[in-house]
Design a protein that fits this description.
The chain has 207 residues and is of the alpha/beta class. The strands form three sheets. Strands 1, 4, 5, 6, 7, 8, 9, 10 and 11 form a nine-stranded mixed β-sheet that branches. α1 packs antiparallel against α2 and α2 packs across α3. The two termini are 34 Å apart. It binds 1-O-pyrophosphono-5-O-phosphono-alpha-D-ribofuranose (PRP) and uracil (URA).
Length: 207
């Protein structure tokens, strides 16, 4: 699917399978989600812009690179929190914005309950983080807000994606690159991804 990168690395797929397993308890779920998030980050940041930089080693001059833009991580609450810490360990100087969204159970519409982002996102690489892309309502709402704040370089990292959600995001934000570990079969009648991994927030926090 255009604009969608499925990360098939064996470690990613191994961890995804552990997360799918209904026997995986919250303590292990949190740890494994963190591990898989950092593995996914490598792929998701592969195309980050860099600029050349020269440094001196103790022995000689060396040519290298530095990131062109600072990074803003934007986890979607709650479940995005499960991927945040491990990503922050890899990009410790990243800024962090938060978007609180909750799907209404009957309409499946995503409703904002928290917004906290830098006012001007235009100079940054923005990574939108949410383990589940189901109907796509939450990702589109989050992306609308990020775009309103001027972001020009955004990518979405979602562990599991439904075809319906990908189509919805492609429709509203055709240029948003999506990185996922799996494109699953479909949504069930309650808007859950099949086979998916259940309710990511509940499995993370044991609620
Ligand atoms: C879940 C998930 C996504 C959203 C995906 O969040 O973490 O944010 O659903 O569904 P969508 O693509 O149909 O919008 P939820 O609203 O259940 O909140 P939670 O993370 O607090 O559990
Ligand atoms: N949110 C989840 O946490 N899981 C799904 O399958 C769909 C939405």
């Amino acid at each position: 699917m255009k604009g969608v990168t499925v990360i098939r690395h064996p470690l990613v797929q191994h961890n995804l399978t552990r997360l799918r397993d209904h026997r995986t308890r919250p303590q292990e779920f949190r740890r494994v989600l963190g591990e898989v998030a950092s593995l996914m980050l490598y792929e998701a940041t592969r195309s980050f812009a860099v600029r050349p930089l020269s440094v001196r080693t103790p022995l000689a001059p060396a040519r290298g690179f530095q990131l062109e833009r600072e990074v803003v991580l934007v986890p979607v609450l709650r479940a995005g929190l499960g991927m945040l810490d491990s990503i922050l360990q890899l990009i410790p100087n990243a800024r962090v914005g938060f978007i609180g969204l909750k799907r209404e159970e009957t309409t499946l519409r995503a409703m904002f309950y928290h917004k906290s982002l830098p006012a001007d996102l235009s100079p940054f690489e923005v990574i939108l983080i949410d383990p589940m892309l189901a109907t796509g309502g939450s990702a589109v709402a989050a992306m609308d807000l990020i775009a309103e704040n001027g972001a020009r370089h955004v990518r979405l990292v979602s562990l599991v994606a439904a075809p319906e959600g990908i189509r919805r995001v492609r429709l509203d934000h055709p240029k948003l690159p999506i990185f996922t570990a799996a494109i699953d079969k479909k949504l069930n009648e309650k808007g859950y991804i099949l086979p998916g991994l259940g309710d990511a927030g509940d499995r993370l926090f044991g609620v």
